[in-house]
Amino acid sequence: MSSDTERPEDSTPSDTADAESGAAQTRAAGAETAADNGATNSGPGGTEAAAADNAGAKPDADDTEAAGSESRDTGTGTEAQGAAADSTGEDTGTGAEATADSGSTLAGAAAGAERNDDSGDAPKYSPALIATAVALPVALIVAVLLIAVVSRQDTVREPLALGSVPAPAAGGPACAALLPALPDSLGDYTKAELAQPAPPATVAWQLPDGGEPIVLRCGLDRPLEFDKASALQVINGVNWFEVRDRTSGVTSGTWFVVDRGTYIAVTVADSAGPTPLQDISDTLTETLPARPIDPGPVPN
């Protein structure tokens, strides 16, 4: 009996050691399995729960859920931070692009302003071109003036043909004294050449380009229209009597000198003005003495 009882006691420590060794190996294998499961299950809270179950230490359910919740919150926060970072990056990129576009716009505006300033500058011409532009109008004006002067000089007046009128005293001393003393010009009118045969004691003046002449005839008979009722006009001390056809609308008249001992007729256009008669009157005053007038009788 005693020997049977002691055999179990002798074998107990060995069995106990073997049991403990097996338990240790079991725990080690469980730990390795838990580690492998933790590496495989990367979800929130999955690693901690598998390790706790395999190790034989059952954690509190609330702690496990809290740990999972914190892990999920951490993951969510990480995702939010990533999204915020992406959003910030996109905003930053968009702002940079907008800034670059604005810079390009400003640079283009500045370049356009410079081009406008350059195009707004007055064009620069060479001194030779400016001198030519100034000289051409002057040369043109000078040419026109020269042509005008030459044209006037080249105008050749034809000899003036005049008809004859009765002049019984044309060869008398009064006409002989007067004709050489007459001026060469009367205002703009100059002495004209007479076509031959020319009437005796006759002088004419004409404008440079021709036209109606001023004609003086000396030694004429007393005009029929001159009578005691005739109206006279005194010009520079000389008595003049005008004969004009008022009904024909002519624009010239014939004036007779009636106080110089011989009758002198001057036919002049109205457009010539008073100068011709004034100049001739001055010559008559200097050349021929005044005489009493001798009008004809008043007709019945």
Automatic annotation (TrEMBL):
Residues 1-10 have a biased composition (Basic and acidic residues). The keyword Membrane applies. InterPro entries: DUF3515 (IPR021903). Pfam families: DUF3515. The chain crosses the membrane at residues 128-150. Keywords: Membrane, Transmembrane, Transmembrane helix. Residues 1-121 are annotated as: Disordered. Residues 19-40, 49-58, 74-113 have a biased composition (Low complexity). This is DUF3515 domain-containing protein. It comes from Nocardia wallacei. The lineage of its organism: Bacteria, Bacillati, Actinomycetota, Actinomycetes, Mycobacteriales.
